[in-house]
Amino acid sequence: MRHRLAAALALAGTLLALPAAACPDAGPQLLLRSCSGGDALAARLLLLPDEAPPAEPATETWVMTGAYTGEDRRADGGPMPVGLFVHGGRIINPNLGRMDGILLIGPDGRLGLHHRRRVAFAGARIDLTDLGARLRFARAAAQAGLSVAQSHLLIVDGAVDVKPRQDAPRFVRRILFTSGGGFGVWQSPLPMTLAEATEALAAAHAPEMALNLDMGSYDYCWRLDGGAATRCGLVDRADTARFSNFLVVARRPGG
After folding, report:
1. pTM, whole model, 2 decimals?
2. Where is the signal peptide (predicted)?
3. pLDDT for 150-197, tens place per residue?
4. Structural domain count of the chain
5. Which of 9, 68, 127, 253 is the most buried (most CB within 10 A)?
């Protein structure tokens, strides 16, 4: 076990690195994009209310809703993220939701998107639907300083994995995706069904993997730069009490 943990710690800074390649193509619906394996931007998760969103970050920063928030409460009374959630050296939620998408963020701020049945970690592919494998993975990820969250995987290996559904609700959608060695966050220009938004993203950027971010009444999104705050969602900056987590992406100094 000690040898496996040492290997996980050694790989934590590199297992999420994507090969250097072109950026996702620029477009009006892209909130942000990072190139060359994500070197220009650093991602991290916040666990609310334990960690407060940055007020005046040193570099351009986006703060937005990440994984879904459930009705259950954590032992400390805080809101519980839906699905597997590891952060700050702690396993916040060991349970696996029905969603296929797994977001991993390394200590270096690099991120990767994975299918829950084949998560790349410590030189292996792990099936998180196996309880024992999931618990071992969660413990090793926590000790290695990784953050882990779960949501719906919309595009898998370049193929759309969402089917149109009759009478599906329409909302503005926000989707995290990887493409060509970089990553981006895409936001729909108008309310769409999840299937419509996924098809639009696929046509515009041909992602390798794409993960849904929580929206609807949890549509929190702000761009912070030089003391100025620009709204990209519906919820006010101070209205954070019901959220369990945020995804924060900041430009590295000089990036």
Report:
1. 0.89
2. 1-22
3. 999 999 999 999 999 999 999 999 999 998 778 999 999 999 999 999
4. 1
5. 68
